[in-house]
Design a protein that fits this description.
It is built from eleven helices and eight strands. Helix 2 (26-35) runs parallel beside helix 3 (56-67) and helix 5 packs parallel to helix 6 (144-152). 47% of the residues lie in helices and 17% in strands.
Length: 247
C-alpha cells in the first residue's frame, strides 16, 4: 500500500505573510491539494506565527470537516502547554511532537527518547485521552533502544527526519548511505509495532527510493519541495506527481 501524502502548508503561509494580504490562501491551496488526492493537511504553528498563524487552524479544520471528511489534519509542534491547548482546540486526527527550539528555522533533529521518555509519556497520554493519534519526530539512525523508549511513551508512530537523505540530492553514494539508515530504523520500528511516517526535504525524485526502503511507510508530510514544485506545475498537478512518487 502506498504511503499517504499530507501536504504541509507552512511555506504557503510564509509566502502569504510577506504582505498584509489574504493571498495566497492557505485554505484555497489546501482545498486544491485535497481535491487532487492528498490524504491530509499538515501545519506547524510556531510561537512567533512566522508562517502558519493560530487563526489559520480553525479555518483548515472547517475545510476538512465541511468538504473532505475523510481527510486528516496533522498539527506539528513542540509540546508546550500553549501548543497543546491550541492543538486540542482544533481537534487534529494526528499530532506530531517535535523537539524544536522556537528560534529554529525548521525541525532538524529527532527526540532524545531515552532522556525525555518520562516527559513525552505524559504529553502523549494527554493527547491520546482526547482520541488523537500521536507521532514523535525521530532521527533517521535511531537505535533499537531509542525506538523502544519511543514505544514506551505510548506513541502510535514515529516520523523519521529525512533531512539528511534529502540533502544528498547531488551525491548518490551518500544518498544510499542515508537510505540504509532509514531502512534499518524503519525495520526496527515495524518490529516494535510503531507506525512509520517520514518528512523533510522529500521530493518527487527521492520519494520512490524511500518508499522501497521502508515498505511499511504510512505517511509522508511534505511542504517545501512540494510548494516549490507547485510554483512550476501548479498545486493540482504537483500533488498528483507526489502521490505517484509515493508508490
Amino acid at each position: 500500500m502506498s504511503a499517504k501524502l499530507s501536504v504541509n502548508l507552512n511555506a504557503v503561509a510564509m509566502l502569504r505573510n510577506r504582505r498584509d494580504l489574504p493571498w495566497p490562501s492557505v485554505t484555497a491551496l489546501g482545498r486544491i491539494a485535497l481535491e487532487n488526492g492528498a490524504h491530509g493537511l499538515t501545519v506547524h504553528p510556531r510561537p512567533d506565527q512566522r508562517h502558519i498563524r493560530f487563526s489559520d487552524l480553525p479555518a483548515i479544520r472547517a475545510l476538512i470537516d465541511d468538504e473532505f471528511p475523510n481527510a486528516e489534519f496533522n498539527i506539528e509542534g513542540y509540546p508546550t502547554d500553549a501548543f497543546l491547548d491550541l492543538a486540542e482546540a482544533n481537534e487534529p486526527e494526528q499530532v506530531t511532537l517535535v523537539p524544536d527550539d522556537p528560534t529554529q528555522a525548521t525541525s532538524d533533529h529527532g527526540w532524545d527518547f531515552e532522556g525525555k521518555g518520562n516527559y513525552l509519556r505524559s504529553v502523549v497520554q494527554r493527547l491520546k485521552k482526547r482520541g488523537v493519534r500521536v507521532s514523535l519526530f525521530c532521527d533517521p539512525d535511531a537505535s533499537r533502544a531509542a525506538l523502544e523508549a519511543a514505544k514506551a511513551t505510548g506513541a502510535d508512530r514515529v516520523e523519521f527526519y529525512t533531512g539528511p537523505y534529502g540533502g544528498t540530492y547531488d551525491d548518490p553514494a551518500r544518498a544510499a548511505e542515508e537510505l540504509s539508515k532509514l531502512e534499518a530504523a524503519g525495520k526496527i520500528a515495524y518490529e516494535l509495532g510503531l507506525g512509520v511516517n517520514a518528512g523533510h526535504d522529500l521530493t518527487v525524485e527521492n520519494l520512490p527510493a524511500l518508499a522501497r526502503a521502508i515498505p511499511n511507510l504510512l505517511e509522508v508530510s511534505i511542504g517545501h519541495g512540494l510548494t516549490a514544485d507547485a510554483l512550476e506545475y501548479g498545486m493540482a498537478a504537483t500533488v498528483q506527481r507526489f502521490i505517484k512518487a509515493c508508490g
